[in-house]
Amino acid sequence: MTAQNKKLIVGNWKMNLNMHEASLFLHKLSGLTKPHRTVDVVLAPTMLTLQSLSLQVNYRQFKLAAQNIYWRDQGAFTGEVSARQLSGVVQYAIIGHSERRHIFHESDKDTRNKVQAAIRNNISPILCVGETAAERAMNETNDILHDQLVGGLANITSEELSQIAIAYEPVWAIGTGNNATPHDVTQAEKAIRSQIRHLYGKTAAETVRVLYGGSVTKDSAAEYLAIPGIDGLLIGGASLDAQGFSDIIEKAHKTASAVAK
Ligand code: PEP
After folding, report:
1. How many A from CA of 105 to the centre of ligand 1?
2. How far separated are the first and last CA of the chain, in Å rounded?
3. 169 part of the active site
4. Model pLDDT, residue 218
């Protein structure tokens, strides 16, 4: 099983579940989920619960991700948590999530600094990109993807790129129930790979992991997983349903096994 045949399923719990609830949820999910060599499953709980879940989690089953990091390693940055502090606790970090970009006004420069900080501290970045509804209506999707990729990946080498996954998350589809169609996702996936080809060449464009995220449910997951060029899913709301999320992991396993045959 090569990294390209594997699927990557990320559950973003957002600002839900306190320490007790998160521990119970992980316990329940562990009981429902079989580890598969074909699927990497990453859980992104709130910062507060990462440390305790890192002691509870079975790393053969799940890896952990931070929902955000700060890019300086240490210093007078009240309220922030650095990639250096998270190193060893998480294996992944979500960077540039649309809620960070739009609610907390993070810029492409912030995402670039965070991508670099993650790599420097042995954490694999999941870089989120995607257009708003207004940008889509103005036909600006490819320009936005271009700017967010060029901005987020500046100074990243092709070797470092192999540690990064790009998540296409159209803002209008996140938490809204408005699914992007497989056609929309394919168009964006092609635009992302074309931009990566331009920056890093053909091999990088073919091998970089591209995920889709935006109102994916246990019923719609298989359709997205079957899209050629889509290597996995970033799931918010539906990742908080233990049975539904483990069904999605099984679907990812079936898709990856069918492709590997
Ligand atoms: C997300 O949090 O990145 C996300 C895609 O959320 P949802 O699945 O709820 O749309």
Report:
1. 18
2. 10
3. yes
4. 96
CA–CA separation, 113 and 118 (whole Å): 9
Closest Cα to atom 8 of ligand 1: 236
Euclidean distance between CA atoms 43 and 48, whole angstroms: 14
What would the DSSP string read from start to end of 223-255?
Answer: HHHTSTT--EEEESGGGG-HHHHHHHHHHHHHH
Query: In angstroms, what CA-CA distances link 260 with 33, 35, 220, 247, 257?
Result: 21, 17, 22, 20, 5
15 CB near ligand 1 (under 6 Å):
no
Q: Look up tokens 């912030």; give the residue.
A: 110
Q: Considering Cα of 91, then 246, then 231, then 146, what sign does the dihedral take? A: negative
Q: Mind listing the pLDDT tens digit for each residue in 144-181?
A: 999 999 999 999 999 999 999 999 999 999 999 898 99
Low-confidence residues of the chain: pLDDT under 50: none
Residues 6+ apart with CB under 8 A from 238: 216, 217, 218, 221, 244, 245, 248
Tell me how far apart the 2 most distant CA atoms of the chain are, in Å. 53
Indicate the pTM of the whole model. Answer: 0.96
Q: What is the pLDDT of residue 5?
A: 74
pLDDT for position 88: 95
